[in-house]
Amino acid sequence: MNEYITITKQQDSISLTLNVEDCVIIELGEKINDICDEAYMNGYNWEVLINYYIENNCNNLLDGMHFDSEAGSFVIYYENTKENELKINEIRDTINFFVQNQDDLIAFVKENESEIPWD
To answer: Taking the alpha carbons of 101, 104, 109, 110 in that order, is the dihedral positive or negative?
Structure first.
């Protein structure tokens, strides 16, 4: 497990929170910001980046997806169903993959930086 992602189940919803103030995520955000000045990686820009990635690579996750990000956290949530729990887990796995394989995320940002609608 990591300390930068939390999944919370409530009666009506299931959510994933990325703590963008965690040192691992701050360091990754600084690398992204070095590529693109507009990519100040607060919670809102993590939302923009992850949403852009999902829209272009796994749009099956879009149905029912909502955001509630703030400056210090990226939050994505769905209605609490088994299907949506699988979606949350897929998003968690994608974020973990990018944290563990930062060069892949950096390459994605370099390739798409002018298309990503940074906040």
So the answer is: positive
